[in-house]
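Sample entry (257 residues):
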Amino acid sequence: MNKRTKIALYVLLALSACLFIWRFQSNYARLMKEGETKTDTDLVNIKVPDYQRMAAPAKTDYHLGGWGAGMVLSLVGLGLMVAHDISGLVGGRALKVIYNDEGEGMANPDYEKAEEKWANGNFLEAIQLMRDYLKQNPREQHVALRIAEIYEKDLQNFLAAALEYEEVLKQKLPPERWGWAAIHLCNLYTSKLNQSDKAIALLQRIVADYGATGAAEKARKRLAQLEDEGVALPSAEPPPAPAAPASNLPPGFAPKK
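Predicted structure, serialized as tokens:
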């Protein structure tokens, strides 16, 4: 469900719940008020009840059952959506804690020291400290991405940056994170390293292995653009031919046809 649809559903359910609650309360209050006005408080002239008239209750237009049912359904639907979003938010934060792929909330002195070296312009020292930190914390692949970023933007060493991205893609990452790292590597291949064949192969891999991600959507558009430009895209490799059955004849002898 996209963001606009979710917001529209939230607004619709909230307005529906408010409408049903208001209608239920107003009709219930009107019912109680009319009941009070019909009560006979004259204790001197007590009237004998007319049981024939009481046998057939008067029809009302309160519709408390309908308004109450609508109120309950709206509140239940709104509660389910809120519970779903909260569970997704909690699950996403837990995943970030497990993989630490963005480094949010991290305050490790060793890593902070490496960032201080980078801030002072000591890029190579910062990279070495980050490598040491990554060896001790191999799950924190955001550090490897940071090393690649320093090679690319600060040192202008695009080959080294590409090699770092290639190592990152060998790790087990969340699909979306893997896909966007691969997209960035494709941009390096095409714009800085003149390795369009590698870029095309990686784009096809993104589509094939991570087709449900946003990175795959971007890869499809890029491949379609290349086709429109007349670039011949490599097709899937044909399966190898089956091997001939082993022969028991001595070397140099062929079987009779």
